[in-house]
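User: Fold both of these, please.

Assistant: Here is the first one.
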Amino acid sequence: MNEPRYVAGHRLLEGRTAVITAAAGAGIGGATARRFLEEGARILIGDAHARRLKETEEALAAEFGSDRVASLTCDVTDEEQVQAFFAQAGRLHGGLDIVVNNAGLGGTAALVDMADEQWSRVLDVTLNGTFRCTRAALRSLKASGRGGVVVNNASVVGWRAQTGQAHYAAAKAGVMALTRCAALEAAEFGVRVNAVAPSLAMHPHLVKVTSEELLAELTAREAFGRYAEPWEVANVIVFLASGYSSYMTGETVSVSSQHA
């Protein structure tokens, strides 16, 4: 298959302020941060890895301007850090318009061998972390009275079964359900809540934690016969964050041919 063509920004998020979790490095969060800047947004990025986060901030600020990029360490399993992260967005730019909840944690373990700690850790980062950040986002957006958008990162494994992924699949299915319920509650104060569900978006961390055999198997399932680039998922997040999706809420959009 031909390599996808990177599409230039169209200023779809001009003048808007966005916060993005788990945005350090070369994954979906980092790609979303870059795409948002290309679309004209100001961003506050967070991540649990302070060094990588600072490196990402410095690189983006050098390219797009330090007045449009800020960062703050944020471990989404820590409520105090989550509150500080969202408070920082208000201090920097007088409020926020868009929240992207990208933080998640995977792993592979057969259910019969899975320890409580493995299950709890994946659920705490992936589902509980999304809950904490969605709650903080809706409190801020409701108080501002100016509407806004929340985009959660789910996964196709929230729909389909995959061996060794019971904890991750349960967490991502929970993110989808949380998205639907939050959307109904947030509609009354003009906030939309949607999610993306990628299947296989390739980045260096995924290569480290996934066998070549499994990556080959997952790639073969894709309609295009290749994995997604992280920026291809980020493009869909931009769409959901923009005015082009103004009547969409409570939806989970698959960035893949795989639904089941």
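And the second sequence with its predicted structure:
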Amino acid sequence: MDLGISGKRALVCASSKGLGLGCAQALAREGVSLVMNARSEGPLLAAAQNIRAQTGVDVVTVVADVTTEDGRARVLDAAGDVDILVTNAGGPPPGLWSDWDRDDFIAAFDANLLAPIALMQALIPAMADRGWGRVVNITSFSVKAPIPVLGLSNTARTGLTGFVAGTARQVAGQGVIINNLLPGIHDTDRAAALDKGVVEAHGGSVDEARAARAATIPAGRYGTTEEFGATCAFLCSQHAGFMVGQNVLLDGGAVNATF
């Protein structure tokens, strides 16, 4: 299927590895030029060079923390008038509800709520003026089925979901389509860290923890970054113009719900 986005330009946040990298790779394969952002220079430059070599698209890299005003300003300056925005940020640390204070919540909000909102506010007006734009926010299946040990993530990402629900319907008539992509467990560093946390708390091996988690997923496995990226690319495509404000689960069936 031709996604109809060759020649478009995308900003993909936290795209040096994991789900963000999967999205960047999938968009590049469709002929989309990229502005890639991450906080660590080495992995970002390596990922960008691989994408250039494999696809031939133009790739600009910006080493910055988009949770800060200065970092966002540098990313937005490099991005210019992009057609596609993919927001993404690592999840806050796990813990118990009684572990966190106000500063912990503010840090989670900065990364997983306020930074995506600020990027949308900065980039959507020009998309609307041109009559075309796509925004995909990578959130989590926890907005539909909260994860007890990830209360900080549950709280911040659910707030973003509420913001998108209203905003997406205000700008759809101007050709700007906003949706959220909700990953379950994928084979990323984040999943590895969570598996390690299980081992530290309960013993056993990482392989055993991974197998136990995979057994809770109806698909029987972790997702791949490639299939996640392909779904993201579709949501950024010409064919997604009638999908407005949706929360698309990509979780191997882990969330047991009718809707």
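The longest strand covers residues 176-183.
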